[in-house]
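User: My collaborator and I are trying to settle a disagreement about how two of our proteins should look. Neither of us wants to argue from intuition anymore, so we agreed to look at predicted structures for both before our next call. Could you fold the first one, then the second, and keep them clearly separated?

Assistant: That sounds like a sensible way to settle it. I'll keep them separate. The first protein:
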Amino acid sequence: MVKTIETALSSGVDTKNTEIAFFGGSFTAIDRSYMMELLNSAKPYIHKFNGIRCSTRPDCINEEILNILKSFGVTSIELGAQSMCDDVLKINNRGHLSKDVEKASKLIKEKGFSLGLQMMTGLYGSSPYKDMYTAKKIADLSPDTVRIYPTITLENTPLADLFREGKYIPYDEKTTIKCCADILEFFYKRNINVIRVGLHYSDELMKTRVAGFYHPSFREICESLIFYRILLSDILKYKKGKYNIYVGERFISKAIGNKRINIENLKKLGYSVKFLSGENIEDYGYIIEEKK
């Protein structure tokens, strides 16, 4: 723990925008003495970083635990809600219900912590409708941050067994992207900060993945679809032909889309477009100019 922090400091990391984080999904459920040992290790470095963040289970939060975390300088707590549908939580043996997420979220906010909620799409027994329901229930809890994780089936897990038995059918690529893009756009409209969409790449993930769509730039793919739908609702008002479309400089890759998908889809509709960099254009904004 200390070695990791020292390595980060010596690497010149931007400490003002970096937190010490304890992840794994069950920080407050581990042996209490070990949890205290980890917190004690981090305590001398609190003043050098922008707080301490931990992730844990919704059913492993109470006032006593929160008071302990507060005394050690923890500032942000993320809960692995995963779903707000009790039938989905039960069939996946999550060990908690939606009411536990609601109760824990309320306590965390009352104690002055930053609240983060994590959800998964495409779980066993779920559907895009249920996933959106989860997103709406999460938004109602007013979290400071949200993470969206499409379900990835890993080797040597009960889900892998269900998949091989034909009892669990993962979302295909198209459904995964559309579902997460819909949810991401919904959170944007509710002004909720989505800090992660999709799992981080790792060699271990790729070696053990059995099913489930994965792409290292998954968020960008979702944002590209959101942009395409916004643009499409506007460009269809124009006659078919050739157009320059100006977007923000940092947004060009998202406008074009993975493997030029947005350009190709517009071409099929009769619109030959070229995306160019424009000045003072915000994300998802654009200027359409007909080619002479």
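The second protein, kept apart from the first:
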Amino acid sequence: MSVAGGTPVDIMNLMDADCPSKPFGGAEEFTFTPDSNGIVFSAADNGREEAWSTNHDLFLSPADGSTPPENLTSSNPAWDNQPVFSPDGKTLAYLAQKRPGYESDRFHIMLKSWPDGEEREIVPEWDRSPAILTWSSDGMYLYAVAMNKGNRSLFAIDSVDESVRTIVPVGNVEHIDSHGESVMFTLSTLDAPSDIFVIDRERLTKKSLTEVNKEHLKQVRMGSFEPFSFQGWNNETVHGYIIKPVDFDPEKKYPVALFIHGGPEDSFPNTFHYRWNPQTYAGRGYGVVMIDFHGSTGYGQTFTDSIQDDWGGKPLEDLKKGLEAAILMNPWMDEIRVSSLGGSFGGYMVNLINGKWPDRFLCLVCHDGNLDERFGYYDTDELWFGEWEYNGTPWDNPESYQRFNPIDYVGNWKTPTLVIHGGKDFRIAESQGMATFTALQKRGIPSKFLYFPDENHWVLRPSNSLRWHNTILDWLDQWNIN
């Protein structure tokens, strides 16, 4: 719509697609052309195949919607996203995956001479997967944000010699913008919610521009945290974080909560989060262990790829070794009073742990986790997920779906479990949570079921979040506090 007003124009011309894409897309998925006469946007125009395709393309449409959009990246069957023009308008940068059907493939940085020039990849050997991309205001650098060894770091990539520098290594960077040699960004850490910072890319001097929660934080005690590493599967180095209880006393023994992240190609990084926030548990007197097991992001694409068709192998071994390593390193951790909790893949892993590691934990929490991986293929909104992770469909490769299927180990279950599920979860259908609770009840295992009919794969409403946190903490206390 013109800034002067008028009737909005559908520049997608009735395409059967969404921009921004659902459920995670935002304004980063579209941009005006340098002359303002067109819009480049990312969309998955896949028709009936959308549920099992990760093919998002870049399209160019006139701003007046006078002609149908033109597909700019039809030659790539994988994901193309985040178009952003250089300040001089001569180059379009964007992110592109290379392997179709794999949502956790590495995003590569592509440059296309605008409007009709060749495209090329820059820094092809850089083994990180950018999630945010923008130009410096002078056009000399591309700024990228990517997971990086337990942090979401900010990088500067020289557009000429293609050198890569890490300019904000620690914490969780988001929402970047630039002016001259300065970069503005939001940053949070495990003990501080987001504020806006600015950094000089050459001198690397960082300054805080806001202190939004300064007065609130004066009234809140946080647990200190530190990264740790250990030898996991195949003696490969695996990383994680340990968060100490609030008001920590080294002479005391504290119960431990083992967090298991979702994804599984994801991470529990150095960030302040409003769902799985370890400080909530530290404030209740728990030590928290978070492990970026094999499959996690930020440690190179080979590490991420390594768990394909091995969900119950490398990750479970890393969790076992990581928990024991954390307890050995920290004598204040009570090796008996240990609980485990996780959502999505973490919920799946909790169900698997209950059958394959049934004697380790005093209680478990399963949030939106699959009980049956085979049927989970049929009732998810992301069919490509199972097809990639298990090398095909359940009818083509049934052995993969069954190898580490929690439902096959229910006979071993014995650990008290809290089950949580959302009624609008289309990633992991609510029937999976109900089935998990049914199995627990039938076996006579102490269990509870917390159901949110108005939530999806995440608990987002504030009142529901309070109920979620309090129910989990009360469940942990019931089994861990003597």
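Some points you might bring to the call about the second protein. The longest strand covers residues 333-343. The chain has three domains: 11-115, 123-219, 221-480.
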